[in-house]
Every structure is written in C-alpha cells, then in structure tokens.
Amino acid sequence: MNQPLGQDGVFVLSRDADAYVRLLADEGIVAAAATDAAAVAARYAGEPVVLGDPGLLVQALDDMDGVRWVQSTWAGVAPLLDAASAGLTVTGIKGVFGPQMAEYVLGYLLAHELGVIQRFQWQAEQRWVTTPTGRIAGKTMGILGMGSIGRVVAGRAQALGLRVLGCSRSGAATAPFTRVFAVEDLHAFLGECDYLVTLLPDTPDTAGLLDADALAALPAGAVLVNAGRGSVIDEQALVAALGDGHMGGAVLDVFNQEPLPQDHPFWTTPNLRVTAHVAALSEPADIVAVFLDNFRRFQAGKPLQYTVDARRGY
Question: Among the options 112, 151, 156, 229, which is catalytic?
C-alpha cells in the first residue's frame, strides 16, 4: 500500500463526493466535500487542491479563493477553460475512458450491422426473416480525436478486423492508425470512412466541423458515432443527410443542449440512435488513481500530468 500522502488541504466538489472522500481516506487524505455548488461557500476553507466535476466547479470557483490546482473528474474540461485562461492550473483525465468508449462505439456499430433493433421488431411480429446481416470486418473506420481515447478505440477496432484511419492537425503517422490525414484533407479522409467516430473536444476549431459539405463527403451508407462533443456536428445537416438516405445511420451520445429537448428532431430522425451522455462514465476509483499520481507530484513540486492548455481547449 502507498504511504499516506499528507494533509495538503483537499476539497471535493462532485455528485459522487462521498465515494471520492472514502477513496481518498484510504490513502490517508482527509478531504472536505460538497455535492452541489450552493454548499461550497459554507464548507470550503481555503483548500489549495480541488477535485471536482467541471459543471459544478464553474458555478463555485468564485467562492474558492485559495485554490491553486483543480483536478477535473471528467474527460471534457470546457467549463473550466476560462479559469485556466485566467491562470488557474487545471488538469484533465487521460488513460481512463478508452476501454469504455471502445465498447460503446463497437457495440453500436455491431448492433447496426447485425440489425439488432430490426430483428427484435421482427421477433415481436413473429416474422422469420432470412435477410443476411452485415459485418464490420474489412470495413474502414475513421476517427476524429486521436488522443488516448481514440488510440484505444483504434486498437480494439483493428482487433475486430477494421482498417482504422485518423485525422489530425499535423497528419503525422501515429500508432495504431493505418494512415493519418491532415485536417486540410478532411474531405479526402471522410471519403474513405464506412464508419466515422468523433471523439473531439469542444474547441473553436472543432465547432461545426461536420457541416453539410463534410457529411456529403462520406460514402453513401456511412454511419456516424459521436461520443466527443455535440458542437462538432451541424445538427440540421445531419438530420437532412439521414432523412434523404445518404447516411446509413448515426449514434449520438452528446448534444449542443443536454438533456436533449423533447421537441428536438433527433428523437424522430430515421436511423438515428440517441444515448444520454453515457458512453464513458467517470468511475471514482479510476479518477482517484489519476488524482493521486498528480497529488504526489503537487506535493513534490513537480509538473502535473495532463495540464489543460486553455488556448487549445484541452
């Protein structure tokens, strides 16, 4: 077991605060905590280290004058970018969400090819339908967002027989991707994708990247999976591409507005599957493992891992 890490004041602001506090206590760290932003003013006592959910932290940082470093519990840190721009040290989470995300992406692509939903309907109708199913092996997956999560998804996809392409700012070769395109060649990249997986963060450069022209560059019947951020997609263009049959399907876990409004066209768009931002959940034990490594670095005066660059947005 690791040695106790000392008492450099830690404050936890998370809906899962109780779980985080227990896990930290196992490592000798006594942390104050709150589960909502409204309680921070009464409970925060100048702790320099804060572990928390960005959506809550953005509401509470004005009441946390002593904070020197914030460790996000989420992969996405968009709510904390203003604080990072103002000079606060913010660190993200890497190396945790890849396996979950790979299961989500591949699970839905397999369900699409196997016609799982349609076959459930045929069973309910007591219909014996011998239409053959599709396969993912031998097809091409393109991934936008080649960070730690994207690399895990790529590796798992290759294990199932997929050819995996990537697209990045530089276009530099990156394992395990078969080929990487530069973002200037986005449409050429899209033209090779039977499946397009987007794992991009919410930044000015990614907003609206998949507009009508980009979606039209996909081959007929292509399937889109977006588990990054909703802002990357032109929503009206996606509805049109699915409605006219150009695209074979879409699976969306993230949206410009969450929860998705009940009158949003995505609910009724043909061949579109909606999930409620569940592709990769923050498990406290996983997050604490990343936090503890950074906490040791903080105590030793060493550089922290996964520091957010506000200019890049992640």
Answer: 229
**What sign does the dihedral 230-190-251-197 (CA atoms) show?**
negative
Q: Tell me if residue 187 is catalytic.
A: no
- Helix (H) / strand (E) element for 20: namely helix 17-25
For 180-190, write each residue's pLDDT tens digit: 999 999 999 99
What is the residue range of 287's domain? 10-95+282-300
Per-residue pLDDT tens over the stretch 154-211: 999 999 999 999 999 999 999 999 999 999 999 999 999 999 999 999 888 999 999 9
Q: Name every residue whose Cβ is closer than 8 Å to that of residue 227 and which is 6 or more positions away in sequence.
A: 101, 104, 105, 197, 198, 199, 253, 254, 279, 280
Among candidate residues 15, 179, 277, 297, the one labeled active-site is 277
The answer as to whether 109 is a domain residue is yes
| Residues written for the chain | 314
pLDDT of residue 312: 87
Exposure class string for 205-227: b at 16+ Cβ within 10 A, else e: ebbebbeeebbebbeeebbbbbb
Kindly state whether residues 156 and 40 are assigned to the same domain. no
Q: What is the DSSP letter of 307?
A: B
Q: How far is CA 305 from CA 212, 262, 297, in A?
A: 38, 40, 8
**272's tokens:** 């579109």
Q: Are residues 143 and 191 in the same domain?
A: yes
User: What's the pTM?
Assistant: 0.92
Q: Please tell me whether residues 75 and 151 are part of one structural domain.
A: no
CATH number at residue 262: 3.40.50.720
Tokens representing 209?
Answer: 């990247």
CB crowding 140-166: b at 16 or more within 10 Å, else e: bbbbbbbbbbbbbbbebbeeeebbbbb
Token pair 């040695």 in the structure block, residue:
3
112 is catalytic: no
